[in-house]
Amino acid sequence: MRNREYFKGKKITILGLARSGLACANLLADLGSDVSVSDSADNPLTKGNAAKLNSRRIKFELGSHSRPFIEGRDLVVVSPGIADSAQPLIWAKEMGIKQISEIEVASILCPGCIIAVTGTNGKTTVTTLIGKVLEAAGKKAFVCGNIGNPFCAEVAEISDGDFVCLEVSSFQLEKIETFRPHIAVILNISRNHLDRYRVMEDYLKAKKRIFLNQGKDDYAVLNYDDLLIRNLASSSTAKPVYFRQESGLNPNQSAAATVASILGINKSIALAVFKDFKGIEHRMEKFAQAGGVDFINDSKATTVEAAIWALKNISAPVILIAGGREKGNDYGPIKGLIREKVKMLVLIGESKDKIKNALSAVTAVCEASGMQDAVNKAFASSVKGEHILFSPMCKSFDMFVDYEDRGRKFKEAVSRLISDNSNCIGKKNDA
Fold first, then answer.
1. Regarding predicted confidence, which is higher, 313 or 372?
2. To which CATH superfamily is domain 11-96 assigned?
3. Does the structure show a pLDDT above 60 at 426?
4. Backbone angles phi, psi at 365, to 5 degrees
């Protein structure tokens, strides 16, 4: 790591004890910081992570935030899910304490070349593809950020000459200060997180911060087919490089191929990676079949636009399981596809009523009490040749730890269904 002395002796409070908060706390403690952690949740996840803090010198509180955990600190590191309206951030602002994000901490220490990817949809796939292309070209790449391990969990292993393929969200970008990717990619922008951002302009402003510290020797990779994204070139002093969907490639592959070309990697290497790529867990993951019915786990789809993409890529009739925590979604744009492709909509979570009111006129709708009930009802209504698609269109935090936990719970519910209903499934197979 570089700048190892930067955080030594500093009094730092980390807000949030999920994955990024835990990784950041352990890293800073190892570097000699005086670390405290505060999380308003007191649940199995936070308790489990508190047990993973690698130093008894790290103080922590669960179940509430208290003012003494903020007073007298040099820095507050803010986890992505915490909004500026949270009380500890109000205290920090009143006390003039600097607030930064976990990716800012890691970037200060990182000696490698950072490739950062953001956008409303496709971030995880593009970040993963870039990492695989780099590895296929014989380069050492770390894929992290808002995907897999947090940046702080990887930075100690990164050396000069290595590459960091970093998925970054608008929340993470809100509190960067010096974060500077050599290559910054913006894939697309559509309505999202309107529970946090008052208007689309605020959301776009947060995304554009990925360019904040770039210079003329850096690159801004932009989607030429999206006029809004194409026009962002003026927001960065970096060299603009455009990607557009090419024949035989989808937009995600085109974006990854463009990054590869900037790095001088032969396109044939990228094409070979794309051919062998089997997809990522929780994103259009076809993982089981029972009674001639395919089950698809698309838990990563936290937006209406992501669910639209999923439906466009399925030809057979669909039973769609959706719902979760509302985030200001407009369900109007998906109505046509729901009418055309969705035989039944099975709803879970806090947003059930809003989705039902928006879409019940175009397809049959039923409500479920939880994940297992949703899977059971979907399968009971299915026939051979159909797909059961879990594409929630919402955040996971009403019922689950995160989208990965939600996807795993969906797959577990399907496994139980198959195990408990072998006779029924056999009859469907024979139909």
1. 372
2. NAD(P)-binding Rossmann-like Domain (3.40.50.720)
3. no
4. -130, 135
